[in-house]
């Protein structure tokens, strides 16, 4: 076994009062510097963490806004589709009456120039050009 290490008590006991004061002052300065460095390190870490969190917040907010706009576009599209289908039903309801009332005076050849409205590639509706 090696020799025993002497404790701080024996080190301080061998010092004079002036050396003790200087030593304790030196130790206090070292501890204060370590405490200051630790606080600075924590502050830097928290600043970096806050900056990253703000970036994630902006990104997530942008994603939420994009999804919200997409939902609103879908709702608007459904509303327009329903409105268009209602208009088509109205046109289909009145179209045969128009064709019957004017077919005698117009003739088949004159009906050929009436523009066609195609909806979803399935329904063809003749609309009068007034």
UniProtKB/TrEMBL annotation:
Highest rank taxon of the organism: Eukaryota
UniProt main location, coarse: cytoplasm
Database matches in InterPro entries: DRC1/2_N, DRC1/DRC2
Domain Dynein regulatory complex protein 1/2 N-terminal: from-to ranges: 26-87
Key words of the record: Cell projection, Cilium, Coiled coil, Cytoplasm, Cytoskeleton, Flagellum
Record has Repressor as a keyword: no
Stretches assigned to coiled coil: none
Pfam families to which the protein is assigned, alphabetical: NYD-SP28
Localization annotation: Cytoplasm, Cytoskeleton, Flagellum axoneme; Cytoplasm, Cytoskeleton, Flagellum basal body
Family affiliation: Belongs to the DRC2 family.
Function: Component of the nexin-dynein regulatory complex (N-DRC), a key regulator of ciliary/flagellar motility which maintains the alignment and integrity of the distal axoneme and regulates microtubule sliding in motile axonemes. Plays a critical role in the assembly of N-DRC and also stabilizes the assembly of multiple inner dynein arms and radial spokes. Coassembles with DRC1 to form a central scaffold needed for assembly of the N-DRC and its attachment to the outer doublet microtubules.
Stated name of the protein: Dynein regulatory complex subunit 2
Species this protein is from: Timema podura
């Amino acid at each position: 076994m090696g020799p025993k290490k002497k404790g701080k008590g024996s080190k301080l006991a061998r010092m004079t009062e002036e050396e003790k004061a200087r030593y304790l002052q030196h130790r206090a300065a070292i501890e204060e510097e370590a405490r200051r460095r630790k606080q600075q390190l924590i502050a830097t870490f928290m600043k970096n963490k806050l900056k990253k969190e703000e970036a994630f917040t902006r990104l997530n907010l942008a994603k939420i806004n994009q999804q919200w706009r997409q939902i609103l576009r879908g709702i608007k599209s459904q509303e327009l589709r329903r409105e268009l289908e209602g208009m088509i039903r109205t046109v289909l309801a009145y179209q045969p009456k128009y064709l019957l009332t004017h077919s005698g005076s117009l003739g088949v050849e004159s009906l050929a120039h009436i523009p066609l409205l195609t909806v979803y590639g399935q329904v063809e509706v003749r609309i009068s050009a007034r």
